[in-house]
Amino acid sequence: MNNFNFKNPTKIIFGKDTIEQLKNEIPEDAKVLLLYGGGSIKKNGIYDQVRTALANVSVIEFGGIPANPEYAVLMKALEVIKTENITYLLAVGGGSVIDGTKFLSAAALYEGNTPWDILKENIRTEKGLPFGTVLTLPATGSEMNSGAVITRAETKEKLAMGGPGLFPQFSILDPQVITSIPERQLANGLTDAFTHVLEQYMTYPTGALLQDRFAESILQTLVEVAPKVLKDPTDYKAASNFMWSCTMALNGLIQQGVPTDWAVHAIGHELTALFGIDHARTLAVIAPSHYKFNFEAKKEKLAQYGERVWNITEGSIDDKAYAAIEKTVDFFHKLGIDTKLSDYTKDYEGTAEKISQRFTDRGWLGLGEHQSLSPDKVEKIVKMAY
Amino acid sequence: MNNFNFKNPTKIIFGKDTIEQLKNEIPEDAKVLLLYGGGSIKKNGIYDQVRTALANVSVIEFGGIPANPEYAVLMKALEVIKTENITYLLAVGGGSVIDGTKFLSAAALYEGNTPWDILKENIRTEKGLPFGTVLTLPATGSEMNSGAVITRAETKEKLAMGGPGLFPQFSILDPQVITSIPERQLANGLTDAFTHVLEQYMTYPTGALLQDRFAESILQTLVEVAPKVLKDPTDYKAASNFMWSCTMALNGLIQQGVPTDWAVHAIGHELTALFGIDHARTLAVIAPSHYKFNFEAKKEKLAQYGERVWNITEGSIDDKAYAAIEKTVDFFHKLGIDTKLSDYTKDYEGTAEKISQRFTDRGWLGLGEHQSLSPDKVEKIVKMAY
C-alpha cells in the first residue's frame, strides 16, 4: 500500500425529504447565489423545496449553467458574485452545476490575472468562497470531492482544477430526485460512477487489499442496482444505493494508497470537447479499448475484477481478464450505452491523430498509472475505439 | 436505507515514516501536552520520532494513562492542562490514550459542575481543545472518530462520551509501529476491529447494499491478514491493511443508513469493569452468545455474512447463520482469544445477575438494534457466555 494523506470534511445529508435541512446549513446572514442548470428543477419541485427552505435568507439566482460547464457562462455568474457581494454559493444540480460552482468558489477569491489561469496553469485552490450543494443527478461524485472540470467552447478545451478549498461545506442527497431524471441521464450516471471506480482500481496490485474490496463493493452494488434504477426510478432501495455509490466512487476514499489511471477520462474529455458526446458515454467508448491495449499491464487486476465482480471462475488469468472486459462492454450495452465512437458520429476519421496532437501540444506525454501512455499510444487506443 | 448525516473531518496521514509529518500539523506557537501510556513508546523509538518532529514546539509530557483510561489519572492531566495553559493535545498511543485525550479535550473547555457529568449525563461535546494523534496500536478506530470510553475505578463504571468537537485534527498512522506490539495486543486489535464491524452489520437488512459490502470488505480483509499479522508483524502488506481496516471499522462510514447493535460492547464493558478483562476479549466472550440468543432476529444477516465472508454455500438460512457463528468463534480461537467467561475467571457466578441489575439501575431497559434487549435477556446472554 502506498503512503497517503486523506481528509474529506464535506457533511453529507442523505435521505428522504432532506432538502428542507438546507435551512440549518446556510448562515442566516449569508447572501446566497443559487446556481442551477437548464431549469428542470423548476418543473420537478426541487426548486420550490429549496426556496421554501431558504425563505429567511437573501437569495439571488443564476440559471443556465450547461452540461460541461462553460467558462463564458460562468464568467457572467462571477460578475454577479462580485457586483452583488455574494458570500455563499448554492449549487442545485448535477456534476456540471456543482463543478461550475467550484470554479466560481475559486475564481471569486482568485487574485491572479484571469480566472482561466486556475485551469490552464492548474493552480490549486487552498481557500474558496463557501458553498453547498443539493444534488439532483447522481453521477460525478462532485458533491463530496474537491475537483471540477470546466469547458471552454472558444478553444474546445476541457480542463480540470481542484484543491482542498473546494470541498462543499455540505451536500444534500435525496434519492427521491431520481424519479424525475430522464433514462438517458440515469444510464449516464451509472456509467460515469462505474468508470470512476475502474480508473482508481484497474491498474496493478499494490497490496491495498481493503481499497480493492471497497472498489469492488461499489462496482458490485452498481451492477446489482443498475437494471432496477432504469426499470423503476421510484424503487427507493435501488435509487438510494445508486446515489450513495456514485458519491463513494469519487470522494477520494478508494484512491488512497493505490495507483490511479485516469487516462480514460483524459481521452474521453477530448471526445466531449470535439463532438459534444455525453461525458459518461465517452468513458464507455474509451475504457474497453484502453484495457485491451494495456492488457499485459492490467491483466492481473482485470482478472481479479472478473472473479470478484462478475463471478468468472473459469480459465487462465488472461481468459478471466479478457472475459472481464467483455462483461464490462455488455454491462454498458445493457444500460443502452454505445461503446464505439462510430455509434456517435460518422465524422470520426482523424480524431485519433487530433487528440494525440493535442496531448503532445499540452505536454501530456505519459498518461496512466505508469505515466507511460504516450500520445502515439493514445492515438492507437482511440483508433481501436472507432 | 435509513436517512443519515455524515461528516468526518479528521485528516489521516498514513504510511511509512510519516511521524515526522507531525511538524506540519501542529501550530508552531502551540503549547502541547503530549499524552502517552505505560512508556513503551520510549523503548520502541516512537517517542524519539515524535520529539524530533516537535523540536521547535513547546511540549509538556503526561505519561501513565492506563488501558481503560482512568478518570482519576485523567483529572491529574486536566490539572496540568489548566495550570500550564496548554493549547493543543497530542495523544501518542492506542485507543486508551486517544480516548483519554478526547475526555481531556472536552473537559478542558467544559464549564459545568464536574467533568464526570460529561460521561454520566452523556453531554455531547460541540467544541473541544484541538488535538491530534499518533497511533501506536491499531484496534479501536478512535483515531478517526469522535467517541471515547472512560473508566472510573472508584465506582467500577465504564461510560461512553462523544460529539462533533472530538474528532482528532489529524491522525498519523505508520503501520511500522506494529512491529513492536506484543502478540496479545495484536490479537486484541484484530478482535476489536472485527467486532466493531459486526456491531454495525449483524442486525437486519435495510437495503443498504453498499454499506453491507463495505462492512464485509473489512471483515474479509481482517480474516485475510490476521494470521499474517500474528505470524510476522514486519509483513508491511498485512500490517498496513490491518491498520487501515481498524480505522475504517469505526470511523462512522459503515454505520450510515443502517441500524446498529452495540449490545456486545455494552455488556462487554461490564466484564472489563468487573474483572479487568481486556476489552477485545470481552467482545469475543459476549458476541457468540448474543448472536445465538437473538438468532431469529439476526439470522438473515448472519447467513449473508456466512456466505460472503466465510464462503458458506451449503444449507438453509438457519444452517448458514449457525455455521457463521461457529466460524466466528473459530476465528477468535485461532487468534488465541478465548470465548467463554470461565476461561478468564473462576469467579464468574452471579455476574449475569450483577450486570442485569446494573443495566436496570441505569435505566438501560432495551439494548440492541430493536431496543428490545431487556436486562433479563442480558442476564441470559451473559449466562450463555459462562
Poorly predicted runs of chain A are none
Structural class of chain A: alpha/beta
Label the CATH architecture of the largest domain in chain A. Up-down Bundle
Number of domains of chain A: 2
Content of β-strand of chain A: 5-15%
Cα distance spanning the termini of chain A? 37 Å
Provide the succession of SSEs of chain A: EHEHHEHEHHEEEEHHHHHHHHH
Number of strands of chain A: 8
Radius of gyration of chain A: 20 Å
The neighbouring-strand order within the major sheet of chain A is: 1-8-5-4-2-3
The name of the CATH superfamily of the largest domain in chain A reads Dehydroquinate synthase-like - alpha domain
User: Largest interface here, residues on each chain?
Assistant: A-B, 42 and 42 residues
**Tally of helical runs of chain A:** 15
**What is the assembly state of the chains in this entry?**
homodimer
Overall geometry of chain A: globular
Rounded average pLDDT of chain A: 96
Q: How would you sum up the major sheet of chain A?
A: 6 strands, parallel
Helix content of chain A: 40-55%
CATH topology of the largest domain in chain A: Dehydroquinate synthase-like, alpha domain
The CATH C-level name of the largest domain in chain A is Mainly Alpha
